[in-house]
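Researcher: I'd like a candidate sequence for this fold, 134 residues long. If you have to choose between options at a position, lean toward the conservative one.
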């Protein structure tokens, strides 16, 4: 395990984690923000009542942890292609499928599934691409 930590590119982990945060801002903002809000029944007023510094701060930390996890998974010898494919498969093969199972039992809509699973798949693909490139 110590050997794995020695070969981590911490800058790549930080950048790839931040990329997921920025992708989320675009995904849940101008691209699918209104649809996502409608699926949950949120209003602009509902969202304004949240502690945004806490939401953003914890989201960034979680995205960085996801990038760390992906970096450990793909290893130091990966390249851009392998990193992107590993991220894509983690997003589609793990996150989307598990989210799909939960949404079936929670009776959530296909539209919400596509929004949330789509974000996870794209964010992890970009993370893997960045990690593999560095």
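Model: Candidate sequence:
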């Amino acid at each position: 395990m110590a050997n794995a930590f020695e070969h981590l590119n911490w800058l790549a982990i930080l950048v790839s984690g931040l990329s997921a945060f920025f992708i989320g801002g675009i995904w849940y903002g101008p691209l699918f923000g209104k649809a996502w809000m409608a699926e949950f029944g949120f209003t602009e007023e509902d969202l304004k009542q949240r502690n945004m510094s806490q939401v953003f701060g914890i989201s960034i930390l979680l995205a960085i942890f996801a990038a760390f996890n992906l970096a450990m998974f793909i290893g130091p010898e990966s390249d851009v292609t392998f990193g992107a494919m590993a991220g894509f498969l983690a997003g589609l093969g793990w996150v989307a499928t598990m989210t799909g199972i939960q949404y079936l039992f929670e009776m959530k809509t296909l539209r919400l599934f596509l929004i949330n699973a789509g974000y996870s798949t794209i964010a992890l693909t970009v993370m893997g691409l960045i990690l593999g490139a560095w």
